[in-house]
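Posted in: Protein Modeling Q&A

I'm a second-year student putting together a small comparison for a lab meeting, and my supervisor asked me to include a predicted structure for Excisionase. I've never done this before, so apologies if this is the wrong subforum. The sequence is pasted below exactly as I got it from our records. If anyone can share the structure token output, I'd also love a short note on what stands out.
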Amino acid sequence: MWYAANTMSGVLFATRTPHEDLRRFRERLTPGKVLHLEEVSLVLTPELAQLLQDLLGALLRNEPVRVVPLEAELTTSQAAELLGVSRPYLVRLLEEGEIPYRKVGTHRRVLAKDLLAYLEASKKKGQDLLNELTREGQELGLGYTE
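Accepted answer (user: helix_wrangler)
Welcome! Here is the predicted structure, written out as tokens:
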């Protein structure tokens, strides 16, 4: 089995690391610890330790992982792929003002941070809707619980 990481300019493959090794390494990732790689050492800040723990946690759950800088400008194809939607649907979201973008000539560009903000807002909206439906179901005595 393989893990694939899309670098936005191609796909990079790496062999899968055994879960137990990942789990043990993740448990030891705490702020202040020092990682050594040959002659280079890196002290883990709280933010870096958390980032690595989150990344390894996703790998342990067999979730696909992609690391994209927040300031990266994405094409509409890349943005659609990250959202898991079709490119035409993404373009409609852009044109409706749901996600900010800018034009470079005739091409649209989307900042990764704006895409993530849309994703978070969309998840929150979905959770709020689910909570409202559950509340209404309880009021009507339909047996729904949160």
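A couple of things worth pointing out for your meeting: Residues 78 and 111 are 11 Å apart (CA to CA). Residues 2-60 form one domain.
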